[in-house]
Amino acid sequence: MSSSSRHILTAPAWPYANGPRHIGHVSGFALPADMFSRYQRMAGSKVLMVSGTDEHGTPIQVQADKEGVSARELADRYSSVIAEDLHGLGMSYDLFTRTTTLNHYAVVQEVFKGLYDNGYIFPRKTMGAISPSTGRTLPDRYIEGTCPICGYDGARGDQCDNCGNQLDPIDLINPVSKINGETPKFVETEHFMLDLPAFTEVLGRYLRGNQGQWRPNVLKFALNLLDDMQPRAISRDLDWGVPIPLDGWRDNPAKKLYVWFDAVVGYFSASVEWARRTGDPEAWRAWWQDPEALSYYFMGKDNIVFHAEIWPAMLLGYSGQGDKGGTPGSMGALNVPTEVVSSEFLTMEGKKFSSSRQVVIYVKDFLERYDVDALRYYVAVAGPENQDTDFTWSEFVRRNNDELVAAWGNLVNRSVNMAAKNFGSVPEAGDLTDADRALMERSRNAFAAVGAELGRSRFKNSITEALDVVRDANRYLSDQAPWKLKDDPERVKSILHTALQVVDDAKTLLTPFLPNSSQKVYEMLGGQGVWSGMPELTTVSEDGGPDYRILTGDYATEARWESTPIKPGVPLVKPTPLFKKLDTSVVDEELARLENT
After folding, report:
1. For 7-121+199-230+254-343, which CATH superfamily applies?
2. Which of 62, 212, 399, 575 has CA atoms 20 to 30 A from the CA of 418?
């Protein structure tokens, strides 16, 4: 299949709507997904990037109670805040929606029914945790204790992050509620379970078939979980969530589908909503049912179990492909993820990000003080791609000043400035020297190298290679020193033509990472209109439901993943600085903010 006809689903994890996002969040699920999607669109693929805010479950209710508002009011507020955060980051969603839409409820209930009809969901009496003081169900993740398997002190009620095993809250030794520190009370209740053991064999084949393709940490973690697959509860005693679509359960206000179950279905429901909004309700099928279509899911490592085990099991079960067989649900068989692209964790000045302890910088605050492309660059070159990584203000300032300002910004400024000042437009090249040809060949060849790394979500390797082209071009200019050749204007034209060609190439190579500054370079070089599309925040309606805000956009622009010859005679715009040099006092100011909050 040619790249121009390839359908690629990009599925960034759904941010939870209980507060604004900080840069630790977006370094895992958001920015890598956007860099990948922008590259794939430039390479000719038909990309569908969908996600939204995850809005159900007890944590939303708990936060709403603290603030004295309804769960819906809290979700409305933070869904809008998060959409604004992601808009500010330039996240090129085809649709960023939410899990409180009527469309989402309908699709979630359809997936439930398909799994239930095929025998992969069954009811079971179990012991549920409730708060003795409020009588409200405690979510598994809000209960902590000692792991009964490895002894780790700090295991959660759903899994132990130390040994990776799935747990139930009642399994924990000395369990306590994270909400108020009390010991939970366990009472008998009936819930629906997803029969994960029925997928052990098919999941094993699926995962082992991805050896050498997935990041090793993700695959190893997922394969280890196969050894002890247990049925997993998919409903809870809650008053805030998607109703269970079965007679006798549908109208029970105390029983809802568990938030993790409805959230992973969101990738599918958002695709269905996007298709309806385009005027072609069946358009989603090209990404979900074509066997040649690819799908990439982006998240932090704490979400691997849901995306590498549970969501594939749900998709396989709905399609009738587990141990019990079955027939596809009414929407047809659905594709499992091509790759689960999980990042490790980003820390900040040696500490875990924590909103409650104020070890944090929120996206909105960051963007008010710094260039969005400076953050995007930092995440690409120094983010937690393969290992936990520490964000420090000193390293952020150093990379901004030494790499963005002194390398890329400097190349653009001096190349465009000299050409605009001396010729007013792109100069025509005369006879090229070996040095000229070597640099342009180096620049052209970088498209294959950078693209190969980007296609495999290796962001550090890809942006490092792109910046190496920039450094080579800076060395070339210094070596050729066109400012010294006042008596040889024809040679100056050739040098500046060569430099501008490489600036144009580098602008393209850096577009997935730095779309805002690439747009500026495009305009400096005489480009008209939109080079790399940006998302739009808009309010939409839904029959029978309230209006809500979404992110969407038109990303069919001029940007293509190739070197395009620049045209002599195109007028040049006098450059303005691409990036702002940061004073080192920024480090002390930001550290002081952390100390004083």
Report:
1. HUPs (3.40.50.620)
2. 399
- Annotated ligand binding at 319? The verdict is no
Residue 132 DSSP class: T
pTM: 0.93
pLDDT tens across 486-514, in order? 899 999 999 999 999 999 999 999 999 99
355 is in an annotated binding site: yes
Residue 160 labelled as part of a binding site: yes
What's the CA gap between 392 and 495, in Å, rounded? 39
- Residue 448's Cβ-count burial label (10 Å; 0-12, 13-18, 19+) is exposed
Report pLDDT digits (tens) over 175-218: 999 888 999 999 988 899 999 999 999 999 999 999 889 999 89
Going edge to edge, which strands form the sheet with 143-146?
153-156, 143-146, 173-177
Hey, where are the domains in the chain? 7-121+199-230+254-343, 122-193, 406-532+558-578
SS3 (DSSP) at 114: helix
Q: According to DSSP H, which parts of 279-362 are helical?
A: 285-288, 304-305, 311-318
Identify the bridge partners of residue 389 per DSSP, sorted by sequence position: 346
Instruction: Provide, rounded to the nearest whole percent, the portion of the chain with pLDDT above 90.
Output: 82
Is 150 annotated in a binding site? The answer is yes
